[in-house]
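Quiz preparation item.
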């Protein structure tokens, strides 16, 4: 399933980098992915599927997943992962802004993707428009941090990190963008992905569930 106006990307370095990272995820990261998808049901839209890292964790209560992945070198890997998944998954090479028209979804999943879009609030408003009334957003995202690490994030975002990591911007107030786009956060927590002393800008992630405000 494709759209004549679908937007795709071809970033060879990022595709290799993300493939390496996703195939070596820690057990803690996998557990967070599983927890973030727990309790989902019905039709789900996943934004930025990457290599399909989430696919094995969708519960049996999910009847269908439509997974969007605009990176042309990652989409074939996502399709391979979809073929091995226990729930039906269709991978489409497009962004959410240019995805084909579809029936409304029960939930949308965003995993490590809102940091890389040009306008997170605009994307989140588009995400909200794809949901049924009262539908939910599950997010697992990098977030801005305070103190010296926040300074490191701002430096990374202004220099090499976005070029290396597929336009990833680490110092983003992602949860503020979620609420500004018309979602009401129901549950949220922050988790460390590396020890506090590790000087990386992606040390912390936020996981949460938000409902589309009526």
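Solution:
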């Amino acid at each position: 399933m494709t759209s004549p106006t679908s937007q795709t990307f071809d970033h060879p370095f990022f595709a290799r980098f993300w493939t390496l990272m996703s195939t070596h995820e820690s057990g803690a990261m996998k557990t967070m992915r599983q927890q973030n998808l727990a309790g989902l049901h019905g039709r789900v839209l996943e934004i930025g599927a990457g290599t399909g890292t989430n696919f094995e964790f969708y519960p049996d209560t999910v009847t269908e997943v439509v997974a969007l992945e605009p990176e042309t070198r990652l989409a074939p890997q996502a399709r391979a992962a979809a073929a091995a998944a226990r729930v039906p998954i269709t991978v489409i090479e497009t962004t959410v802004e240019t995805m084909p028209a579809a029936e409304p979804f029960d939930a949308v999943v965003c995993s490590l993707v809102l940091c890389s879009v040009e306008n997170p609030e605009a994307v989140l408003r588009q995400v909200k428009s794809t949901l049924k009334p009262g539908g939910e957003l599950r997010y697992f995202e990098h977030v801005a941090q305070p103190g010296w690490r926040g300074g490191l994030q701002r430096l990374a975002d202004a220099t090499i990190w976005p070029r290396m990591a597929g336009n990833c911007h680490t110092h983003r107030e992602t949860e503020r963008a979620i609420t500004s786009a018309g979602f009401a956060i129901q549950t949220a927590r922050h988790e460390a992905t590396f020890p506090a002393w590790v000087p990386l800008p992606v040390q912390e992630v936020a996981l949460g569930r938000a409902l589309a405000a009526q």
